[in-house]
Design a protein that fits this description.
Chain lengths: 469, 208
C-alpha cells in the first residue's frame, strides 16, 4: 500500500488508540513559550503530575519579550510576569529554557529548526498555531491549546483524530523578486481561510523542490491561515545539507543511519490524497493582502476587488474589510501611502529574509514619516545578520534593528502601531486590531515590505533591484 | 473538566463568518498571569472608541446579557491556538456555541473545557439562525447533549450530530490526561521500540 509522507510519520508515531477512538501520537519534540506554559505548569502541579520527558521538551521566551536593545524582564511591563513564571516553571520541571538573554533565544519556530531540535520524520508540538513552520524540514508539527500542552507534558503524546490529506502541487519556477510568501498568500486566496481545515497538507512540486529550507518554512508557516491542521514538505538533499552539523541533530554514525531512514520518508509514487490542489508559480507576481483576513489577496499590480464581482459568501466580509482598511473597491494598492513597516515574525525573520530585504534597502533611506522595524527571528539570526553587516544596512537606512522575538506580529510585547496607521508587514495575520487598535495591516514578503518602507508607499520590489538606485 | 449534559439559556446571534481568536480574546488585552477572562471576551467589539460599551453589540443588548448560547457562522475561532478564547466564553456563562463550522484547534479547545461546540451547517443552520433572530432573547433555547436535540421557540426540535467520543467526553467530564494515562504502558513500550528503530528521536542532546 502506497503511503504519503504524512502516513509514514503518523503510523510510526501511533502509540495506541484510546477508548474514544483518538490515536495517541507520540510527540518527539515539544517546544513551549511563555505566554501559555505557566497555565499548564500550574495545572500539572495542582494535579500532582510530573513532566514525563523533560529531556524532549524545550522552552523559549518569545511572545512577550521586548525588542529594545538592552532589554530585560521588565522592559515590557506586561510581559514580565510571563517571563518570570516561565523561568520558574522550567527550573522546577528541569526543562531547557532559551531565556531572554540566551545567545540562542528567539521565536520557537525559528529556534527549533536552526538548532536541529526538530528533525525530518519527527513529530513536534508547540502551543502556537504556527507550529507547522518546521514542516519545512519534513517534520509533522501540531499547534495546540493550553490543555493539550499540559497533556503532552504529562504523557508525551497527543490524542488526535487522524486528519485528512491534501497535496498542494506547486509547479513551475518562481520569477525574480517572488518568494514563498507570495506563493502562500496566493494559495490561501485560492482556497480560502478554511480551505484546508481538517487536513494535513503536503507541499510538493518543482517550485517547492527549488526552495531553500527557509522558504519552505515560510510556506508551511502560513498553512494555518487556510485552516490546515499541519503542513510539511518531504525532506530531500537540500534539507539534509541544511540540517547537517546543527548542534542537536544526531552525529557521526547515528546521522548516517538517520539519513538512510529520512531518504525513505517521501510520499510513495501513487499514494492517495483526499484533495489535490495545483498552482503554476511561473507567472506569479508579488502578492499582498488588501483586507482583514489572509485570503483577501491581490497581485501587487492588481486592484482590490469590486464586492459585486466576489462570491456572494465573501461579499459581507469584503464590505467590512473595505471600511476597516479605508479602501475603495476597484482601486490599486500600489502607490498607497503607508506609515509603518514591520519585517520579522516566524513567517519571515530568518537570515535569507533579512538578506532579501537588505538588498532592497542598501544605499537607500526609509521615506520621511515612515516607522520601519526589523526584528530577527532569533538571537542567532541577529548575530549572523550583524556579521554580514545587515544591521548597518538597515540602521543607516533608518530602520529600527531590534532584539529577537515575536514583536509586532501580535503585539504581545507592546510593539504595535498607532490607530489608523497603514502597515506593510511580513507577518501572518491581518486581522483587525491585531497589530494595534485600528492598525491597517497589509501582509507581504520581506522584499515588498522593504521596498514600501523606502517608497513610503506600497511598492513593487522588482523596481528596486540592487544597483537600480 | 466541567461536564456538559443539557443547557437552557438565551441564544445570542452573532452572525458572521470567520470570527477569529483575535476578536474573541484579543492578545492586546493580556495583562498578566491572572487574566480577567470575563472582561476579555470580545473586548474591542463590545466597546466604542471612548471605551464605553457599544449598545449595538449583541452581547451588550439587555436581552442577551445573560446569554448562554452563542450562535454564529462559518469557521468560528480561526487563528491562534490560545485557550483564553474558550475560557473567556465560560467566564461569561456561555456553555454552547452553535456554528456553521469551527476552526480545528478552537473546537479541540472547546472539548477540553466543557464548552459544547454544535455544528449546524447549510440550510439547517440558516433556519436555526432565523429562529434565534426572531426569538430575540425573549424565550430560551435548550441544547440537550443526551438526546442531541435543540428545542425552543419558532419551530420543531432540531437534531444535531456530534462524534460519539466527543459526546461521551463532555457528558462525563472526563479528564483527558487520565484517559491517556490508561495507556502509559503502551507509551513506555513505544519509547523502547523507538529507541531501537530510530534512537535519534528519543534523545535531544546538544552535541557541543
Amino acid at each position: 500500500m502506497q503511503q504519503t509522507l504524512f502516513d509514514k510519520i503518523w503510523d510510526f508515531h501511533r502509540v495506541a488508540q484510546r477508548a474514544d477512538g483518538r490515536d495517541l501520537i507520540y510527540i518527539d519534540r515539544h517546544v513551549l513559550h511563555e505566554l501559555h506554559a505557566h497555565h499548564a505548569f500550574a495545572q500539572l502541579h495542582k494535579q500532582g503530575r510530573p513532566v514525563r520527558r523533560a529531556d524532549l521538551t524545550f522552552a523559549v521566551q518569545d511572545h512577550t519579550v521586548a525588542t529594545r536593545p538592552g532589554r530585560d524582564d521588565d522592559t515590557n511591563p506586561s510581559g514580565s510576569a510571563f517571563i518570570k513564571a516561565m523561568r520558574e516553571g522550567c527550573r522546577t520541571n528541569g526543562i531547557r529554557l532559551f531565556d531572554i538573554d540566551d545567545p540562542e533565544q528567539g521565536i520557537s519556530h525559528v529556534v527549533a529548526p536552526e538548532l536541529g531540535i526538530v528533525l525530518p520524520g519527527a513529530t513536534h508540538a508547540v502551543p502556537d498555531s504556527h507550529a507547522s513552520t518546521v514542516g519545512g524540514v519534513g517534520a509533522l508539527a501540531f499547534g495546540c491549546g493550553t490543555s493539550e500542552l499540559a497533556h503532552i507534558l504529562a504523557t508525551q503524546v497527543m490524542a488526535l483524530k487522524r486528519p485528512k490529506k491534501m497535496r498542494v502541487q506547486l509547479d513551475g519556477r518562481l520569477g525574480a523578486g517572488v518568494s514563498a510568501k507570495d506563493v502562500a498568500l496566493r494559495i490561501i486566496a485560492e482556497i480560502g481561510v478554511a480551505g484546508a481545515r481538517g487536513h494535513v497538507v503536503e507541499y510538493a512540486g518543482a517550485a517547492v523542490g527549488a526552495m531553500p529550507i527557509e522558504q519552505r518554512m515560510t510556506l508551511c508557516n502560513l498553512n494555518i491561515e487556510m485552516g490546515g491542521r499541519s503542513g510539511l514538505v518531504a525532506p530531500d538533499d537540500v534539507t539534509f545539507e541544511w540540517l547537517a552539523r546543527r548542534p542537536f541533530v544526531p552525529q557521526g554514525m547515528e546521522w548516517d543511519r538517520a539519513l538512510r531512514h529520512w531518504c525513505r520518508l517521501a510520499s510513495d509514487e501513487g499514494a492517495g490524497f483526499d484533495r489535490d490542489v495545483r498552482l503554476d508559480c511561473t507567472m506569479l507576481e508579488p502578492q499582498i493582502t488588501w483586507g482583514t483576513d489572509p485570503s483577501q489577496v491581490i497581485g501587487i499590480s492588481g486592484r482590490v476587488p469590486d464586492p459585486a464581482a466576489l462570491d456572494p459568501g465573501r461579499r459581507g466580509a469584503a464590505a467590512s474589510a473595505f471600511g476597516y482598511m479605508d479602501l475603495a473597491p476597484g482601486t490599486p494598492l500600489l502607490g498607497l501611502p503607508i506609515n509603518r513597516v514591520f519585517i520579522g515574525s516566524c513567517t519571515n525573520s530568518r537570515l535569507p529574509d533579512l538578506q532579501v530585504a537588505a538588498d532592497v534597502v542598501r544605499g537607500r533611506h526609509v521615506a520621511e514619516g515612515v516607522v520601519a522595524m526589523v526584528v530577527p527571528g532569533s538571537s542567532s539570526v541577529k548575530r549572523d545578520a550583524e556579521a554580514a553587516g545587515l544591521d548597518r544596512v538597515f540602521r543607516e537606512a533608518g530602520f529600527f534593528w531590534g532584539e529577537s522575538g515575536c514583536s509586532m506580529c501580535a503585539g504581545g510585547n507592546g510593539d504595535r502601531g498607532q490607530p489608523g496607521e497603514r502597515c506593510v508587514s511580513t507577518t501572518n495575520r491581518n486581522f483587525e486590531n491585531r497589530q494595534g487598535p485600528k492598525v491597517r495591516t497589509h501582509l507581504a514578503s520581506p522584499a515588498t515590505a522593504a521596498a514600501s518602507a523606502i517608497a513610503g508607499r506600497i511598492a513593487d520590489a522588482r523596481q528596486f533591484a540592487p544597483g537600480a538606485a | 473538566m466541567q461536564p456538559f449534559t443539557c443547557h437552557t439559556g438565551i441564544a445570542a446571534p452573532l452572525i458572521r463568518d470567520d470570527i477569529n481568536t483575535d476578536q474573541i480574546a484579543p492578545i492586546l488585552h493580556s495583562r498578566g498571569l491572572k487574566e480577567d477572562y470575563r472582561a476579555m471576551l470580545f473586548h474591542r467589539a463590545r466597546r466604542r472608541e471612548d471605551g464605553s460599551e457599544d449598545p449595538d453589540f449583541v452581547l451588550n443588548k439587555p436581552q442577551f446579557r445573560a446569554a448562554g448560547i452563542l450562535v454564529t457562522g462559518e469557521n468560528f475561532g480561526a487563528g491562534s491556538s490560545r485557550e483564553s478564547a474558550v475560557w473567556s466564553m465560560l467566564a461569561n456563562g456561555i456553555r454552547v456555541i452553535v456554528a456553521k463550522s469551527f476552526a480545528d484547534i478552537y473546537r479541540e479547545n472547546c472539548l477540553q473545557n466543557g464548552l459544547l461546540p454544535v455544528v449546524l451547517g447549510g440550510a439547517l443552520g440558516d433556519r436555526f439562525i432565523a429562529r434565534v433572530v426572531t426569538a430575540d432573547g425573549k424565550a430560551p433555547f435548550t441544547v440537550d447533549l443526551l438526546t442531541q436535540q435543540i428545542s425552543g421557540p419558532g419551530g420543531p426540535d432540531i437534531a444535531f450530530e456530534i462524534p460519539l467520543a466527543d459526546r461521551t467526553r463532555l457528558i462525563e467530564g472526563l479528564d483527558d490526561i487520565g484517559l491517556t494515562l490508561k495507556h502509559v504502558d503502551e507509551i513506555a513500550g513505544w519509547e523502547a521500540r523507538a529507541q531501537t528503530a530510530q534512537p535519534w528521536l528519543q534523545s535531544a542532546r546538544d552535541s557541543r
